[in-house]
Design goal:
Blueprint: E1 8-13, E2 25-30, H1 35-47, E3 51-55, E4 61-63, E5 68-74, E6 81-85, E7 88-92, H2 97-105, H3 113-116, H4 123-129, E8 132-133, E9 136-137, E10 142-149, E11 152-157, E12 163-164, E13 167-168, E14 176-183, H5 191-205, H6 224-230, E15 237-238, E16 241-243, E17 251-253, H7 259-277, E18 286-288
Parallel strand pairs: 2-5, 3-5, 4-18
Antiparallel strand pairs: 1-2, 6-7, 7-14, 8-9, 10-11, 10-14, 12-13, 15-16, 16-17
Length: about 290
């Protein structure tokens, strides 16, 4: 495949670009260095036959060892951040979410630390999945999103009716998020202290290592980790993958796990919880085969 860009890489191995460190090569990867390059790259990508994928920091994906038989657009170089005044900021999708927290939220003592502290990944990924915690989510601060779609470049106003638990309806699965405009509110609480508290809590309560964070969404009124733990699955292992002894909603790449190792444990958790509780767990991680 001859891409008309000097930022195209053939047979690009995706594993090192993901937090799981799992995944084979993409047939072609595009690395636009700016929004001006990303728009034509996206338009060209969707004009080609076969599958396509937009990938940020790879913190919430599990990619097959066989790779991805299509085109991947990587947003990692879209990392500009600019203040607009009035506590509003425009943030490109490839910026690391923790940079937004540390460079904007904390220095200005804005609300939002509790929602984002310690969450890995890119701003675009956080927008796409409405990432957050029990203390808030990305859409709480998002005014609008600039998207590239099959119909062209457009700005979409965002409100709470378009956002839910780890989901949103303003951006389709085949769209590219270029940037978001965020509006923050100054807090009367010390956001640095809140940040330090949640970072320490994550270190104590969540395992450290190669994983995607929470594998499953929490069912209404319960926690996926609790259900998996009650099923006796903490420490269950398949090849190089293991269900964490620290938090059962984390499946770790402990020692050279394969895609199939991790997928086996995902399906084991779903089957056992369904059998014991009559409840279906739904993945938070995107499984890409």
């Amino acid at each position: 495949m001859n891409a008309p860009f000097d930022f195209a890489v053939e047979n690009y191995v995706l594993g090192p670009a993901t937090w799981y460190r799992v995944g084979g090569p993409a047939r072609l990867a595009l690395f636009p260095r700016s929004a001006d390059e990303a728009v034509p790259a996206y338009r060209w990508m969707v004009s080609q036959p076969g599958r396509r994928l937009v990938l940020g920091k790879g913190s919430n994906v599990l990619i097959s060892d066989a790779g991805f038989p299509g085109i991947v657009l990587m947003t990692e170089h879209l990392d500009n951040l600019a203040a607009l005044g009035g506590d509003r900021y425009v943030v490109e999708s490839g910026l690391e979410l923790d940079r937004l927290v540390c460079d904007v939220v904390l220095p200005n003592n804005y609300e939002g630390t509790g929602a984002w502290a310690g969450i890995p990944g890119s701003v675009g990924g956080a927008m796409f999945m409405n990432a957050g915690t029990v203390n808030g989510a990305t859409c709480d601060f998002l005014e609008s999103a600039d998207l590239v779609t099959r119909d062209g470049v457009k700005t979409v106003a965002v409100d709470k009716t378009q956002c839910g638990y780890r989901q949103q309806s303003f951006c389709g699965g085949d769209d590219l998020i270029l940037r978001g405009t965020f509006k923050f509110t100054r807090s009367d609480k010390d956001q640095r202290a809140i940040y330090d508290h949640y970072i320490q809590r994550r270190r104590e309560k969540q395992p450290q290592g190669h994983c995607c964070g929470s594998v499953f969404k929490n069912p209404p009124g319960d926690h996926a980790g609790r259900l998996i733990e009650v099923c006796g699955l903490k420490g269950a292992r398949r090849g190089g993958a293991v269900i964490s002894e620290i938090h059962a909603n984390f499946i770790m790449n402990d020692n050279g796990a394969t895609f199939q190792d991790i997928l086996y444990l995902i399906n084991l958790c779903k089957a056992r919880v369904r059998e014991q509780f009559g409840m279906d767990l739904h993945e938070e991680v995107r499984v890409i085969e």
